[in-house]
Amino acid sequence: MSGEVLMEAGEGGVVHVTLRHTGRLNAMSRPMWRQLRTVFEDIQQRSDVRCVLIAGEGDAFCAGGDISEYPGFRFDVAALRDFHENDVWGGLNAMLLCDVPVVAQIRGACMGAGVEIASCCDIRVAGSGARFGAPIAKLGFPMAPREAQLVAGAVGDVTARQMLLEAATFSASDMLARGFLSRVVADDMVATEALGSALRIAALAPQAARMNKQTFRALKMPIALDGKALAAMKNIVNGAPDPYAYADSAEHREGITAFLEKRAPLF
């Protein structure tokens, strides 16, 4: 069995995405990377999804890549390029381009591919026993450039260098202190805490959440001194020419009206 990425609807507009690779601590296989892309491209097109909760099956988030596959392609330049640029980056980029908020529920091993997937999430909740790293130096190869850029942007340059150059691994408390994790709780409370975060997000204005993610994505672009950055920012609101075009939207009005009327908004 080569593993699978499952998608299941939950309560309150939350969709559960599960990484499952039994017996391999949910290590990502090539089919799983492709399924990850398909799942998040589907989520991006659905207006009924308000938040995604991604987790690994059982006691691990994702232990990395499925090394058992590697001899079949890693030693060929074209095949290796295809794996990283199409399979892996296709899955990660679909997550990055998804406007729906994503919460990561992390237990146990979060290594290599697991760190990359977690780096694409907005909120990361981990159990106290979780471990993080990318010890691929022990396998004799570097992290692909775009993947390294992604991880360094999420965990920080110092931590990324330690992970890749020293093959260092870190505890959940380490990663909380380094700003990668949102919260650390007891291992048996991770599912409850992560779901609570997802439900809180899902109860808020979905359009505002998607627009915030579009803004965060745009802000990661290089700053231009000639005004090009401002022009780029104008295209983040569903292709609208003005980033404030939501002013007269129903959600905007409902949010403010409900606050003034001291009631819960109905989005």
From TrEMBL:
Keywords in alphabetical order: Lyase
Name of the protein this chain belongs to: Enoyl-CoA hydratase/isomerase family protein
At the highest ranks, the source species' classification is:
Bacteria, Pseudomonadati, Pseudomonadota, Betaproteobacteria, Burkholderiales
Q: Which Gene3D superfamilies match?
A: 2-enoyl-CoA Hydratase, Chain A, domain 1, Lyase 2-enoyl-coa Hydratase, Chain A, domain 2
Q: What organism does this protein naturally occur in?
A: Acidovorax facilis
Q: Record's InterPro entries?
A: ClpP/crotonase-like_dom_sf (IPR029045), Enoyl-CoA_hyd/isom_CS (IPR018376), Enoyl-CoA_hydra/iso (IPR001753), Enoyl-CoA_hydra_C (IPR014748)
State the source organism's domain of life.
Bacteria
Q: Which family does it belong to?
A: Belongs to the enoyl-CoA hydratase/isomerase family.
